[in-house]
Amino acid sequence: MVIKVFLASSSGSTAIKKKQQDVVGFLEALKVDYAQLDIACNEENRMWMRQNVPEEKKPANGIPLPPQIFNEESYCGDYDTFFDAKEDNLVYSFLGLPPPPGSKEAVQADKADIVENGTHAEETNAEGNLDDSIEVPVEERNGDAHSKEELAQAADEEDEGEGGEEEEGEVAEGETADDEATEEETAGDEAPAEEEEAVEETDEAHAEEEEEQEEADDDREEEELRQLEEEEEDLEETQEEEAE
Asked: How confident is the model over 154-190, as pLDDT tens digits?
């Protein structure tokens, strides 16, 4: 299987160039065999790429931009899907290739298999064959495995049942004492609450007095303005009479 990466060698877009370099550089770092196919200088490569990119993967204008990645004839994806696979350590799955043993992707696949099947991963010996010398205990296979320490602890708990009842009685008395102390603290908190209510009432009274004072000031200002207007009118009349 050959990985095909369709590139544009003479692209004038800096973004496309960076994406192409990112894909090629990462494949080389993984030592994945791939072939670069230039769509700028080869019309056949460009037409093949456009025809084989699935319709649902094409942009709105219908023209897919490089880089586009294929595994032989199978479409893998564009740069965005490649980048997501790289971030999730799933590049080999993205390319349709088996992950090499010991890689992060192989470890993730083993863990996923264990979670799905509920079994231990098969261990192999140095020759790559299944290692029959490693056996899983019957209890563990059946899901009934218990350590000796757990069994001993359960027996001790049964023996100490009577002593536990006495301790529960003592705890109950202690809780009663704590409840009484809590009630006393609650009663002590009621007094500050009453003081706060008295302060709020005083503040309200002050607020009402201020409102009344403001209303009185407004009335006084209106009266003074009215007097000034009357004086101006009288002055105008006097001036008119003198002029006549």
From this structure: 667 666 655 555 555 554 555 555 666 566 555 555 5
Q: How far apart are CA 148 and CA 212, in angstroms?
A: 85
Q: DSSP secondary structure string, 26-86?
A: HHHHTT--EEEEESSS-HHHHHHHHHHS-GGGS-TTS-PPSPEEEETTEEEEEHHHHHHHH
CB 49 within 8 A of CB 8: no
Q: How far apart are CA 6 and CA 75, in angstroms?
A: 11
pTM for the predicted model, two decimal places: 0.47
CA atoms within 13 A on the CB side of 231: 6
Residues of the chain with pLDDT under 50: 120-124, 126-128, 130-131, 133, 145, 171
> Phi/psi at 16 (nearest 5 deg)?
-65, -40
Write the DSSP symbol of residue 134. -
